[in-house]
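User: Please predict structures.

Assistant: First:
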Amino acid sequence: MAVPSLTQRSSDGPALASTVNNALKIVIVGGFGVGKTTMVRSVSEIRPLNTEETISRASADIDAIAGLDGLRRKNSTTVAFDFGRISLDEKSVLYLFGAPGQERFWFLWERLFSGTLGAVVLVDTRRLSDSWYALDRLEHHGTPFIVACNDFGGPFHAVDQIRAALALAPDVPLVECDARDRSSSKYVLITLIEYLYELASKRAVDQARAQEDGAQENGDRVPEDGDGPDRHDGRGGQDERGDGPGDG
């Protein structure tokens, strides 16, 4: 992923260090109104790029979710993506992309997933079914992900209930968060990075074990006719038993 070159500091946040040569990309996905834009805003070290537009009267009924406090009063929505940045160290930077939640913008997800290291699936436990599409697309692309339950003050759900409702594999991390809080959002991203590191370490161990098993298998292979040095002496196929010192 190309790293933009910025040499001056602006009022929007610190400039990208000239020593940065490693860019990592993470996407935040989920249903409409689960807090993706809020999370990018809370954790980004720069003023995020937002593509929010006012919800028009024509789309008010489509973008409203009946019966849930707060969402009916939502007056803007992301129509492309949110973008934020976090400098990890002098050489590495993390780019955050928040995906739009409405179904009519899901076609943009395919491009956002390109080059993605991993993903956060942000969910509202009051409407877990809104997260099914995000989980399905990530699994289709083979993109590692964790699930973060944003706190909207809804009824309590046990971890096992949430895992069952989302059909999560046992090894997929499931955490709680408040997308408005910077430290809470950072914890979500740290959890994802640790999970990605764990997966990479496991792959490295599996590859090393496979190579070791392959080497042992080749070493234990029974020689076939013509393979071993003691089958023929190279003189017209004469049997090696006729070359002994006491023969003839």
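Second:
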Amino acid sequence: MQPGPTVDDRRPRFVFAPAPRKPVVRRAPGAENHRMREVELFDGTVTLSPLRLDDVDAHLAGEDELLVRWLNGGPGTREGVEAYVRHCREQWDIAGPLRAFGIRAGADQALAGTVDLRFAEGGLAPGQVNVAYGLYPSWRGYGLATRAVRLASSYAAGEGGEEAVIQVDPENPASAAVARRAGFTPGGQTRGEDGRTFDRYLRDLRAAPR
């Protein structure tokens, strides 16, 4: 569960409830101190809430070759995923630059994937926020990644982000399609620290939500 290029969904196969004009931001019950990691974002279909340790099994069960290739950087292990989730929780507690959400859907709010925001990362200009996302195989094809990216982008705007950035491997057209559907436009190319080239997609967070 590392930041990086993305895996996404394709054309929706069925109709969800329409999303509200603005996402609903709510706190988990019993959050007396309103810690950042208790925030939830909801658009009528998808809920985003911070990753937690009981998500580890779902992530390990859902991880496939596409997630390993485009998002995670390598197959996950229980030890590694647990360590990453603990790091994410710490980042929420200290209002750090990483905000990692679980994408939750269905009647039982099952973990369908992840979307991460990074407010400080190499190659980003001041005010830019990197967005990385991925879905597990059984949840692809329903428009969930597009919804999650829109929700996360609205949250980033509320936290002071001025421009959202998605970096996509040129060989991953499905990810580029989600970026476009979420209101991002092509913004040239960039080269990662490992020398790989990525297509950049940008969205002005200061503009009215789309």
